[in-house]
Each structure stands twice: as structure tokens, then as C-alpha cells.
Amino acid sequence: MSSLTPLPFTRPKHILSARQFGRPFLDYMYELINQIRKFDKTKDGLMYLQSLLAHRRAMLYFTQPSTRTFLSFQAACHILGIKPAEIRDPSTSSERKGESLEDSLRTFASYVDLIVMRSPTAGLSDRIATLLDETPRPVPIINAGSGPDEHPTQALLDIYTLQRSFRSSSGIEGKTICMVGDLKRGRTVRSLSHLLTNYPGVRLIFCSPQAFRIEDDLRQFLRSGGVQFEETPDFHQAIAAADAIYMTRVQDEYDVQGSVKVDYQAYCLRYEHLERLKSHCVIMHPLPRRDELDPAIDADPRAKYWRQERNGMWTRVALITILMGVDNHIVLPTL
Ligand code: NCD
To answer: At what angle do helices 187-196 and 152-165 cross, to 10 degrees?
Structure first.
């Protein structure tokens, strides 16, 4: 099999930040994921996917807690035939003996062909990618979450979910997307906001308690891109105006001693709120959730977060095929 169209963008060497992706990439990724999902329908299709990277190995280096990002990357590796190794606790590696992170990562690169990393440190994956690029054995790095800073693969799967949800209502353009919760420290909101600047006419509503408002760098980025956005503490008004609501939890793992405890009760989506929402409103959450998203909402057709979670696996399969240069083995319709 071969691709019908040449790549409409420069193939990325790494996936480090949502800022590196433009509209041609996002449109291509959407079609690629849809094609890949067709292979899931038959055993032959899945065996074909497994043959694409059966000669490759990956390291999943996750030193911050993770359930779905870790498991979906692991599943994506399995789907493509890649053999994954993992470190989830640095106290079990030579970091415990005083080895620098840089040396540990360089060691992984000696044995594998791809490194997926999550860490509590903002900017770490960029630093490692730059370092490895200067060695004789550079390997692609995927940022699977870097502190409160970036979570580009989550944002890419969120875009896929939004685009799919709005496929019969002229796509993401012109939609009002409301982000709710801890917008100060929520990396998913930051990365998704960056990607949404690729869609003309999108209006963003950032709804949070005062203490959890977006950081100034994001505000500046949106202003300089001419993106229409507003910040409000008014939950009821914000959710009623939205075509999509993106709920998030308090990121209290970043609390430092003396942080103010914020009352989050006014930023929880409850079953009783459903009647206020637009009939086509898309409800999303990167998960895990706590009280901010009532499980009674799960059965409502507007709740898309469980699909969003599964979309994460297919998005990561697609991203790995692009990084490893085998996306051209998936037939795409002309874009
Ligand atoms: C998010 C994260 O890790 O930033 N989770 C995820 O990757 N699905 C959101 C969160 O932990 O709140």
C-alpha cells in the first residue's frame, strides 16, 4: 500500500509542544486516524498494523503518575508491533545511584528507537531532544506531559475528538469552546488552547475561580494571534454559551506550602446543569475526574469523554506512524 498524497507539512522529528503544529498537520492527522481505525475492524487489518513497526523498540519513561496516557501509548506500541520497555519509578533506575537525567535518557536512546516521556519538569523533553539530536544516535522524543507546561498529544486527541464531534456541523471553525477549572496549572488546557488558534472564528471562554486563571503567557499568545477569548468566574453563563465544554480537575499536585485552598464547588458540572447546555454541546474531560464531573452525566449523548479517552489510543498510533515514517503505508483519501 502507498499514500495517495504527499505530506502537506514537514515531518516532525519530535513531538514536544502543541505550538509546533499547524492546520495542514491537524487535517492530515484527522484523516490518518480515521483510516487507521478502519484497520481495527478485522484481524487482517490489525495484523497489518502490527507488521508496520515490528522491528522497532520504544521506551516509556513516565516519572509522574499516569493511567491513560501511559496505557494508550503502550497499547499504540502494541498495535504497531513496537516492543515497549518502561520506567515509571526513577528510584528503580540508575538515577538512584546519582546518574544525571541526561545520561539516563542517552542510555535509553542506545537501546530503543523512540522515547515517550512524562515528567514533572516543564521543558524537560525539549532539553532532552536537543541533547540527543547532537549525539550519533538521535531518536524521536514524544512529550507525554511536562509539568504544568505542555501535553501536546492530549491536545491532538482533543482536537480529533472535537473535529469528529462537529463533523456534521461544519467543523471546529466558529465554535465557542469553554474551558473550566484549574486553568493556571492544567497543561491540557494550555496545549489545547494553542492548537485551537488554528481554527478561524473559534471563541474561547476560560471559566475559573480567580486563583486558577490562565497564565499571562497564554493570554499574550492568544492576543497576538487575534483569538477571541474571555475570562469569567461565571460558570452558569459560560456553560450555556458553549458548543463544547472542557472540564478539568484541580491540579493540587503542584500546590506548595501555604497555597490557598480554593472552593471548587461552583466549577463542577452536575446532572442538573444538563438542561442549561446547548442540545449539541460536546462535553469533554481529559480525565481523571473527581467531583467536577458528575458520573450521572456519562449516559447523556453529549458526554464524549470516554470516546475521547479511546480516541487517545488511535491518535497516538497515528502520531507514532508519522514520526517513524510509516504513515505512507496507510491509504489516505485525497485531502
Ligand atoms: C491529564 C494530565 O496528565 O495532564 N491527564 C491525562 O493525561 N489524561 C489531566 C489531569 O491529570 O488532570
So the answer is: 60
CA torsion sign for 137, 140, 144, 145 is positive
Task: Give residue 115 CA to ligand 1 midpoint distance, Å.
Answer: 19
Q: How many residues does the chain have?
A: 335
Q: Distance, CA 288 to ligand 1 centroid (Å)?
A: 7
> DSSP E strands: which ranges in 20-175?
57-62, 83-87, 114-119, 141-146
Domain count across the chain: 2
Query: What is the reported pTM?
Result: 0.96
Question: Is the domain of 185 the same as that of 122?
Answer: no
Burial bucket for residue 295 (CB in 10 Å: 0-12, 13-18, 19+): exposed
Cα–Cα dist 266/294, whole Å: 13
Rounded mean pLDDT for each run of 10 residues along the chain, 335 residues in total:
66 97 97 97 97 98 97 98 96 90 96 97 96 96 97 98 97 98 97 98 98 97 96 98 98 86 94 98 98 98 98 98 96 69
For ligand 1, say whether the CB of 193 is within 6 Å of any of its atoms.
Answer: no
Q: 79 and 138: one domain? A: yes
Q: Could you tell me the residue range of the domain that residue 231 belongs to?
A: 153-253+261-309
Residues 105 and 218 reside in one and the same domain: no
Q: Which three cell numbers, joined as nine digits, stand for 186?
A: 492544567
In this structure, what CATH number is given to the domain that contains residue 58? Answer: 3.40.50.1370
CA–CA separation, 311 vs 129, rounded Å? 26
Cell of 202: 473559534
Ligand 1 binding pocket includes 118 (Cβ within 6 Å): no
Q: Are residues 192 and 232 both part of a single domain?
A: yes
Residue tagged 458548543 (cell numbers):
243
190 lines ligand 1 (CB under 6 A): no
Of all atoms in ligand 1, which is nearest to the CA of residue 118?
3
